[in-house]
Design goal:
Immunoglobulin-like; Neuraminidase; six-stranded antiparallel beta sheet; mainly beta; single chain; Jelly Rolls; disordered N terminus; eleven-stranded mixed beta sheet; about 625 residues
Length: about 625
């Protein structure tokens, strides 16, 4: 390898640089535009493929200017030393160099055996006709590293970039390039090289086993690879490297040493659900093709657990823990080929709690377990759950309300247990309390948790964490139906002490001065409205079938759980700001269904067939 010089472009590292420690410069190598195989051996092992002297893989062809970018991902293979002499193998993505085109811009990795030692490096090269200068060293890589590389151009400017996802190394460089942009390639090559061993061109291809280029793209989209675009390598004594047919989504292939065509790599086509908690532990279903018994799954760089082979088109796996963000999902077959679907799964922070009818509180997402002070096994008396709006960062606490109006605190480990509130609405023996809200008020410079309890007739009753401030709590409603248990739910606007009471028909009635709104879901005479959540721009009601209905200026969103004709939806709550926003809908069995961009979280309390889940609340 030779060191990069200023005339060959300026490197612009983004998230770290490739290390050059221990990289020898004793070997110089370069690629070369394609050359057909010698005529006497120009007989393909696979009739669809074109035979070349030192390229194998896939190429696309078009008119001049057809290709402005090419991207590809692969795993650095491990080569074996021959019994004598040298051996090399290079993998790269590039534009031009095919069909007598003497220009070529490319970036990739190279594995070397110089007769005495191995070396694996990342490199790039810009060829604009002879003479062919040595490729430019970027830094070291290792067998098994996951590599993604790209070439993009606009006019006479080009950018080459490569990422070693395993070693968290990145590199990019801007170069001048005047090539025609007429072909795009994803290639495993036997390069030209020179060193103390002499020179070779093309050099003997190293036994690299096999590797997969997957996914690959061109001009930002699927290349729609077909077998007719395949290239197999014949160095003069027979085929020594051959690609598979394209995978089922036409954006990947495997290439193998020897003349036996490998099967295509597996194809990852779907991941369901597509998001989950940073704590992991979520069971997901991966759809695709070519999955083998014993396949492994990774989310980003972290291996999944509990991988189960269902069929050649389906796997299940349990997600590992990971930080917030979007990651790729990789399936690797035991025979070697792998498939990576970029940005296939999103990790989200936040979560919340569900409440069962006995008073049990069950975390979802990354919310911790809590200690409760109210639990009534066998008695479906719990009605509502709210978080403590006066909690500081890192604290988790709140209250559960029973059907008589009693408020029972809960708290996570490390958070002080809230006081048992003083309440003006409590009816022992009469299950008339339907819901409550909590907000934080400041009295004399001291924050206090407070709120309103809603009875079934629409009455609003102040509560507070201290009797000394109960007179500072406002609970003034606009809807009251004495003797008619029709007021079902209440919601407060985030950060405010006002909001809306919902009646069983879906009508919304402001309290504490909230602006009037017209519900988009209203069913007079039919008590099908299940719950309401207020947002800063309006809010949403949910009907018993799971339909979500905006009010105010809130945007319309589509439910992920909807059961027409089945009154099974129980609650709707805002996803905490730690997620991507949106809402969660709770079904009667405890299932959590996101909408509006909220993440998919598994429920720790789930009772299929038993409608015991009562309420849910989002939490940080």
């Amino acid at each position: 390898m030779v060191a990069a010089t200023a005339s060959q472009g300026t490197a612009a590292s983004t998230a770290g640089t490739f290390s050059t420690a221990g990289i020898s410069t004793a070997v110089a190598f370069h690629s070369h535009p394609i050359v057909p195989a010698p005529g006497s051996t120009n007989a393909p092992a696979t009739s669809d493929f074109t035979v070349t002297q030192y390229w194998s893989g896939y190429a696309l062809t078009g008119n001049p200017g057809a290709f402005s970018s090419a991207n590809g991902c692969w795993t650095v293979p491990s080569i074996s030393a021959p019994s004598s002499g040298v051996a090399f193998a290079s993998q790269w993505v590039g534009i031009d160099g095919y069909y007598l085109n003497q220009d070529l811009i490319q970036i990739g990795t190279d594995e070397e055996w110089d007769g005495s030692s191995f070396q694996d490096v990342a490199w790039y090269e810009v060829i604009q006709g002879p003479p062919y200068l040595p490729a430019v060293e970027i830094g070291g890589v290792s067998p098994g590293d996951a590599i993604c590389a790209s070439v993009s151009r606009g006019g006479s400017d080009a950018t080459l970039a490569i990422t070693d996802e395993t070693a968290s190394q990145e590199f990019s460089t801007a170069q001048s390039y005047e090539g025609p942009g007429q072909t795009a390639e994803w290639i495993l090559e036997a390069p030209f090289a020179s060193g103390t061993f002499g020179s070779c061109g093309p050099c003997p291809l190293a036994n690299y086993g096999q590797t997969s280029f997957d996914p690959v793209s061109v001009n930002g989209g699927n290349p729609e690879l077909v077998a007719a675009g395949g290239l197999e390598m014949n160095e003069g004594s027979g085929v020594v490297s051959i690609p598979s047919d394209p995978d089922s989504d036409a954006n990947g292939f495997t290439v193998a040493y020897g003349s036996v065509q490998p099967p295509p790599p597996p194809a990852v086509l779907s991941v369901s659900p597509p998001s989950g908690s940073v704590v992991g532990g979520q069971t997901v279903t991966i759809g695709g093709s070519g999955f083998e018994h014993g396949a492994t799954v990774s989310f980003g760089s972290q291996p999944a657990s509990g991988v189960q082979w269902v069929s050649p088109t389906q796997l299940t796996a349990v997600t590992p823990a990971e930080s917030v963000g979007t990651v790729s999902v990789t399936v690797t077959n035991p025979t070697g080929p792998s498939s990576t679907e970029p940005s296939a799964y999103s990790y989200a922070a936040g979560g919340g709690y569900t409440l069962d009818g006995f008073g049990g509180v069950h975390p979802f997402g990354d919310s911790p377990s809590v200690t409760t002070t109210g639990y009534w096994p066998g008695w479906t008396i719990a009605r509502s759950i709210q978080m403590n709006p006066c909690d500081t960062s890192g604290q988790i606490s709140g209250w559960v309300m029973d059907g008589f109006g009693g408020l029972h605190p809960f708290a996570a480990s490390g958070t002080p247990m809230p006081a048992v509130p003083y309440t003006t609405g409590y009816w022992p023996g009469w299950t008339i309390a339907n819901d409550f809200v909590a907000f934080c008020i400041t009295v004399g410079g001291v924050p206090h948790a407070a709120g309103c309890v809603l009875d079934g007739f629409g009455g609003l009753h102040p509560w507070a964490d201290s009797s000394s401030v109960i007179g500072d709590v406002s609970c003034t409603g606009t809807g009251y139906w004495p003797g008619w248990d029709i007021a079902t739910k209440i919601a407060v606007v985030p950060g405010q002490d006002y909001g809306y009471v919902m009646d069983g028909f879906g009508g919304l009635h402001p309290f504490n001065g909230a602006p009037p709104v017209s519900p988009s879901g209203y069913w007079p005479g039919w008590e099908i409205a299940a719950d309401v959540v207020a947002t800063t721009d309006g809010g949403y009601t949910v009907d018993g079938f799971g339909g979500i209905h905006p009010f105010g200026s809130a945007p319309a969103i589509s439910p992920s759980g909807y059961w027409p004709g089945w009154d099974i939806a129980r609650a709707i709550t805002s996803a905490w700001t730690g997620t991507t926003g949106g809402v969660f809908v709770l079904d009667g069995f405890g299932g959590i269904h996101p909408a509006g961009g909220a993440a998919y979280f598994d429920a720790s309390g789930y009772w299929p067939g038993w409608s015991i889940a009562i309420d849910a609340v989002g939490a940080p």
